[in-house]
What we know:
Layout lengths: L2 H16 L16 E4 L5 E4 L3 E6 L2 E11 L6 E14 L4 E13 L6 H14 L4 E5 H7 L19 E5 L3 E5 L6 E3 L6 E3 L6 E4 L4 E6 L2 E5 L7 E2 L5 H10 L8 H4 L5 E5 L3 E5 L6 E3 L5 E4 L5 E5 L4 E6 L2 E5 L8 E3 L28 H9 L4 E6 L15 E3 L5 E4 L5 E5 L2 E6 L2 E5 L7 E2 L22 E6 L3 E6 L6 E4 L2 E4 L8 E2 L3 E2 L10 E3 L3 E3 L28 H5 L1 H6 L5 H9 L15 E4 L2 E2 L10 E3 L6 E3 L5 E4 L5 E3 L9 E2 L36 H31 L19
Parallel strand pairs: 8-17, 9-16
Antiparallel strand pairs: 1-2, 1-41, 2-4, 3-4, 4-5, 5-6, 6-7, 6-45, 10-11, 11-12, 12-13, 13-14, 14-15, 18-19, 19-20, 20-21, 21-22, 22-23, 24-32, 24-39, 25-26, 26-27, 27-28, 28-29, 29-30, 31-32, 33-34, 35-36, 37-38, 39-40, 42-43, 43-44
Amino acid sequence: MHFTNTFRILFLTLIMVYGTSNIKAENEIKLNWPIEIESKDGYVTTLYQPQLESFKSNILEGRMAVTIKGKDKEMIFGAIWFKSRMSTDLENRTVVLEEMDILKTHFPEMMDEKKVSKFSELLSKEIESWNLEMSLDRILASLKEVENLNELSDQIKNDPPTIYFRTSPAILMMVDGEPILKTEENSGIEYVVNTPFFIVKDPKSNTYFINGSNFWYTSDNITSGWKETKKVPSTIKKFAEQSIQQQETDSISKSYTSAPEIIVATKAAELVMVDGEVDYKAIEGTSLLYVANTESDIVMDINSQNHYLLLAGRWYMSKSLEDGDWKFSEPSDLPEDFRNIPQDSDLANVRPSVPGTNESETALLEQSIPQTATIDRKTATVEVSYDGNPKFEKIEGTDISYAQNTDKTVLLIKNKYYCVDEAVWFMSDKATGPWEVCVNRPEEVNDIPPEAPVYNVKYAYIYDSSPEVVYVGYLPGYTNCYVYGGVVVYGTGYYYRPWYGYYYYPRPVTWGFGVHYNPWTGWGFSVGFSYGWMGWSFHPYHRGYWGPRGYHAGYRHGYRRGYHHGYHRGYRAGYAAGHRNASRNVYNNRSTGVKHTGNRSTRPTNTVNNRARNTTKANNMYTDRKGNVYQRNQNGSFENRSNKAGQRPSTGQQPATRQQPTRQQPSTNQQPSTRQQPSTRQPPQTNQRQQLERSHQNRNQGANNYNRSQQQMQRNTSRPSGSMNRSGGARGGGRRR
């Protein structure tokens, strides 16, 4: 085929696919591969799933195999290298590759370098508005080919909290340090400020009262001696009615036949409840047992007789459960059989917390995916209020100070003030403002240690900017999800002293709320925190316990449903049914300035060209790093399909008429310095077939994960409110009952 004819076919068909600015959500071609386009003159171009090569900040680079077939013509094989800004919708598990730039092309029949250069230039001009939507699951699987992406670790604290073991119903109520009492002006009733639970004191009798669901308790001491009571002063009952959020009649009262025990703790603690005598069950194919009659994840290794308890993504071990001497277990020291827990086991939900499993690898990759947003510089605003005059405290070992007496994160760096509000950076010459959207994150932020209560802002980034907008994003660390020892964990493990003046401002916590990881929906709370027990409306500061303001969907939208059916149904059922909502994206909590984030957008959408379609062709074309195209046959072999294999890829020039935003990220947007930097050692040399086979395996895994994710989302959408199935939404099996 002559070069000019090939050029015309390729150029027209590519424009047909990507000439639109977006693809409607209901059009399935956006997620499935390969994509096929038929031109008017009968030529069919097929684009195969991208293979990723580089991922930094919000920029992805990779390559795609492309084939062109005309009527009665020989098929042409080629490769395209691209670079694109990534826009994410983590809630719906989709990624849009925006403004795709063609970096290189490799079509062996195009031998004229001048014409190839001209082709690349024209092609780049036409595709500047490409928005290619892919599933997050496919992206994650492909990212496994990006070297050293997971060699990250946070310097967090793993000391065990106090662990209370109970075989009968109990509620753990956390107080943020020593109890602080404040008097309500109208009634004279004193209430404990630094807790999300309803704990009050009757000034007449000097007696304390707790209200949770339909139960009342009384004691002479805040931290001990709580007993159920039916005698409650009318003034306290009235205060509770005015303050506690609306209770649901079928919540905890239907789960417990008698009032649960009350445990009040002022230091790091967790509650482990077993429903009566411990019921051990075998995990098939292993020498492990698990405790079936609990909401906690407890595994016993028969060989060592050690119990392993999973808390906030960390494993702790002890010979006994009751009054156990719990010690932290390094993830790498877990018994080998932990990796052999079957994916369809009742305990499969712990696999993300076991290094080396597919689930833990996927969870680690998700740590590298930012939730992104486009911020309008003119309309984005923030207001910062202080409890009195601004008070700043220096962060040890840095040149940064942070504001203590505000519910916002305000930093003082080199006589400039920075406020990070819902993952958007603002700056001002004064602590009180006025504030404007920041376009460069200060380098000093990378020095913030995990001992500081503002540690999470290290994971809020500024990627790029124009006179109109700023491209921003945050990694899971901003919402207190970190990496340690090859697994994801919740919280830094450090205790952060809150502020209390006229107002009470809590800081992020790790312990006390039974945080569990769900491989489909992230972090949620354990049993015991439904309506009526936590989150009363007299003061709204409970949000600060779990990071960014407004990021508290797990407590409100998770356990309410799971708890309706008794604690045996557990966090996974309730959490999976209710947690997938927009409040997981902190940018959605902003009322101003967000032009685009997740499924919230001011961008127009257009329909895709009706000649573009999904195809029944196998997604079995791959390229090597030189651009040669290989087809994987049914017998597992790879056939080189490039017409002239081994040609060096052609480098396309960038169009002169287009001013491309700077892709090189400033040093202020590097990964936090407390993480281990990727190794400079070269990876071991592998032969070409092994690399292609790895691409094949990752592509298959991504497709499988995508299908399972879609099925789970459909189940969650179609499931009536309050009804659960055994699977409860967790990957690889249901929660034990």
